[in-house]
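Help wanted!
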Amino acid sequence: MSANGASTSDAGVPAKKESKKPKYSKFTQQELPACKPLLTPGWVIAIFMIVGVIFIPIGAVTLLASNGVVEIVHAYHNECTRNLTTREAKIAYIENDQLDKTCNVQLRVTKDMDAPVYVYYQLDNFYQNHRRYVKSRNDQQLRGDSVNETTGCKPEATYNGQPILPCGLIAWSLFNDTYVFTRGGTQGLFVNKKGISWKSDREDKFGSILPSNFPNNQRDNTSLIGGGALNLSQPLNEQEDLIVWMRTAALPTFRKLYGKIEDDLKQGDTISVQIQNNYNTYTFGGGKKLVLSTTSWLGGKNSFLGIAYLTVGILSIFLALVFFLVHLRNPRPLGDPSYLSWNRKAQLTSNSAH
Amino acid sequence: MKRFVYINDGDLSPGVYCNNKISNTKYTLLNFLPKNLWEQFSRFMNKYFLLIACLQLWPLITPVNPASTWGPLILIFAVSATKEAWDDYGRYQLDKQANERNIWVVKKGVKTRVQAQDVQVGDILWLRDKDEVPCDLVLLGTSEPGGVCFVETAAIDGETDLKTRVAPPPCIGLTSDLLHKIKGVIECPTPDKDIRRFDANMRLFPPFIDNDFCSLTINNTLLQSCFLRNTEWACGVAVYTGNETKLGLSKGLPEPKLTAVDHMIDKLTGAIFLFQIIVVIILGVAGNAWRLSESQKIWYAKYSLKSSSWYEFLVIPLRFELLCSIMIPISIKVSLDLVKSVYSKFIDWDLQMYDEKTDTPAVATNTGISEDLGQVEYILTDKTGTLTENIMAFKRCCINRICYGETTGDALADPTLLRAVHEHVPEVIKFLKVMAVCNTVVPVKSHGILLYKAQSQDEEALVQAAAFLHMRLINRTASGVDVDFLGSMLQFEILDVLEFTSDRKRMSVIVRELRSRKIKMLTKGADETILPIVHPEQQCRPVIDAVERYSQMGLRTMCVAWRDLEEEEYSRWSVKFKEASSSVTDREWKVAEVCQLIETNLELLGATAIEDKLQEGVPETIQTLRKAGINFWMLTGDKQSTAIQIARSCNFVLPEPEGQLLHVQGRTQQEVQMSLERVLRTLRMSSTEPKDIAFVIDGLALEIALKHNKEDFEELAMLSKTAICCRVTPTQKAQLVELVKRCDYRTLAIGDGGNDVRMIQAAHVGVGISGREGLQAARAADFSLGKFRFLKRLILVHGRYSYNRTAFLSQYSVYKSLLICFIQIFFSFVSGVSGTSLFNSFSLMAYNVVYTSIPVMTTVTDKDLREETVLQNPQILYFCQAGRLINPSTFAGWFGRSLYHAAVVFLVTIHVYANEKCELEEMSMVAFSGCIWLQAFVVPLEMNMFTSIQVIGIFGNLVMFYIVNFAVSMVKWGGMHTIMYRICSQPAYWFAVLLIVVIGMGPVFALKYFRFVYRPNAINVLQHFERMAELASSGTAATESPLRSLEKGSIPLSVSSPNAELGSVYEPLLCDTPSSSLKRGGVTYSTDFIPSSPSTFTLSPYSRFKKN
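Answered by r_m:
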């Protein structure tokens, strides 16, 4: 009866066909050893507890670090426009080259500030991250690889038909307010402007080339007024104000380093600052602030991290407690018979409801 | 349309037909690039990506370097083009090999050796044993007597048995010298792809004139790619060549199947696209408004005073379009293709789906549709060879009112039958003669043993049984049959063969007994086709009863009949038959008509019953799959009572009173309609009861129902979970698949034979059993298995895991793209809505292609539940069937998560990096690191277990992120120069990242925990029990085995039932899809959960698993 079956299997044997049996390996059989964590109450409560226990100290430390930073912020954009009130007047004032823009400001040191004290200028409502602005530069040119390369610099690529060096809107809109500090009325405070930019920028991003054909240096009445002029006899990689400025900010409110005061400032000191209020923030209603700040291991004054860490830590412990209480009142360990009976009951009720 | 082939006469048809150059290649060297690109761009997603990439070439609007899109795009295109080119080159090589083969061809009367590609239509080809046939030939002569030769047709239909082919009668007996000179004409249809039909005529020219026309059938042909076997030589004339052969025409790729998940992904992609457009419009308007009001104020941006070009208003929207273009991730397609091919590899590799006996591993031919396996709702299965072994054994027979084998259970062991044979009882002899002669079995002598080569397992069983009863078929040629009966030789001349077709369901052979010169017609066939043509005066009752009884035992029955023909009657009929069988059009139908004329007034001899054993594990498999909520339909060509019997033994239908069988029957439209309505009424009434109702319908009633009562039948199909359709044709099988598909169900068709191919191709998922009926079904199928029982594992393990994995991967892919996109959108609000990108091009590209693709791809090794648990609780498949893991609400969850995470990353970053720290490049990397760190927690949270691969993939990726970025930070001219070193040395960076991770993950984690413990879904509950079993097995209570604890755990099987109720309240992300709740069948699901006896319910599959 099975002659045919036998013959086919016989025919198969002498041919010695390679078996098509798949090779065994843990991967091919999907049997790799694995750990299978389950979200059991114990684990989850522990994790939230641990997060809380870690976060609260971090929050405290960072908050302390932030509070340890002494910061003097002084907005001078209104004060330094000779008390002009309307926007138009302010614009007219700032755009007038003939007027003296000097303005004196008094700062009181409320707490001891240990050296170095960083001097920042803060701009508000200034979109350095604007699509038109942020790309308007040419890194090749800045590096000095090819000084005539101005791709991407529009609309500030050429001036009088010649390529601008450094080209682009960013360089052209260089911030040009200046500050001169004196302590107690007479004693000059030296502001160190060396080393305020990134070392890597000075060494690799900006070449040792002299600026040329820079429109702000050859100001005439036909061109729109830009920002500050450059020192035409100083190579770009030494013009640190420019280097700092060209590190564009990600937010419309930003601070940039102006310099460092390498003296301790004592509580009660009065610092007078002579400001050259040159930079036009009035057309777009932006603010200008002068900031003196010490620094901590975490950076400047910023209580966000501390508060956030404390809040999250507390919430986390709170959640852990809630889960713990819920677990106590309504325990559902794995395989608890009551769990089964709950199911059974629910099953019964749902059945009878049918 | 007809084609005339002039044999051996190249001058009469020069160059009309193509030469024999085979070309399977899709491309040529010239058209490769355009054709391949055109094909790739015919997909919506690719078009979209190309549009984006082109827009990016416009420097004014591009927020990022165009390379960040062009790079991956070109890579993807290059990879898929290279793959195509490589495949095509392989095909080209094979073609070349085939085309340059040397073939003996007679050209102008001279035998020469030419390359296969130079063969022309009309050439005479000479083939030797084991040669491959280079083109479609009409056989002219062979070395064997009677013009017979044997071919192996495996390359065409996958059937490995030898088939006989004969030269047409006029050519038989010609010597090879004459064959060199033979001339003639063959009238044949234009090339088609039907490999079972060749309706042609041949006429030989003088001096070979024999008679006018000689009809040709497929039995006179040698088709391309067959192999000549057991024949010294054969020669034939080329009729179809090159790509016009039957094989050449039947090649071609079937329509690609798309899975339900794919459709869902497409829909979601479409929704995202819409969302993207809306975002772009809103941001575009806002951006233009901002520009109009601010542009003259922000002097540093130096907007020109003059009104600018016309497209000015488009610039900002287009910039945002580009910024948001990553919402539809370019990586999703690549990752999906990748993981899908891994799923299919897992199927290929699975040792538990490997059949030792036949050395058949499971094969996933279609690598793209594994997820659909997990969503199957209807399985339409063939019976013979699929549910059964297809190993036929002759068990009983009924000859002349005497039933043999009643006591012994095996007719061959029944001494009364053996005695009857030895006593030459005339009815018994006649019966045995029909068994031995009326078939197409070829006896082959090998090493002195007589073997039977049969295309039908039933015929083989009958011939074997006849041989056992001393009626031994020993030789068969085209013209005659030799049978040895108790030492005496009976010789029959075969006059005509009235072939078996699935419509006729019977076969007759008209023979002349050489000794008595009498003409007889021997007929066998299904009872309902034989009984109506039996001589009206004959008493059929005993046979009918016997057939009824046999089929109730699940045996396959066949009626055997006989008719003595008068010489005159036969010759009159013979003319008509010849005419019909030489017609070129509608031959099959015409032949059937003519056959009916002579197949009348038969003498019914009796009935045979053949047993076909159920395959191992079939009832358990069906029970498990039915528990998984899958409905079974059995479509068989077998008769109703056999089908019902098999259905009962397969657990298709429970015995009364749980189960109920409803019959839809009738011969006329009214009868069928009434019957249908009655069944429907019963079904509607009992739809609330947990009763197992199946309907039974036969081919005829089905045809009527499908034609006239389609709506009723569709309702019936939806209400009834089980159906038994018997006596159905291959076309009806495919029609039924289409019907179920139209009701919006996912269908799986499984079968083993050529008659299942259409159904397999029509279904969403086609599964072929590589069985004894050949490999045809397995070839056409998306998956092929060695045995039916592997289907359980294929669906529950592979299908389910694939679905789960794809659901996670696709939604995650969209989530991570949305995340980065939302951050960009938030950033645009602090950058003057001008469309600045926060992230640099390199990071954006690497984010999609590397950092977020690699970790999630390790989901291919993830399993939510152990395989045993799933096999034990098949109900869990409901989650996949209802599409609970990927649907608009789960997607909304991911969408919300991406929005929340984007807000966390953005807000934390801008607050920590405020004031003096807010340098663009630095802040960008801080936010970016935040995203990457979040991913290192989002991915593990969604995974269920951690193998070494996952740990390496997820955390190795994080390490790689730093290595890559440190490397990039070393590049002096890059925008990222020193950035990574700077930020990594700042404590604030690490605090920010930690804060992002904890704020981002905390609520997600807490919510997941709450759901898992207090609002668990069925998967979670089973996870609990898995853990319980593990604890029990590893704990101190060594006596309590995991098996026992799982047994206890079997009670919450029913847990999904309350959950289904709670679902809408507590599981907003897991509620049923609208489509699933629309289905009337799906709702009654929960009642299935109540196990009739819990212990057998779970224990038996588990212990069975252990055995495996």
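OP: Thanks! One thing I noticed: The first strand of chain B starts at residue 2 and ends at 7.
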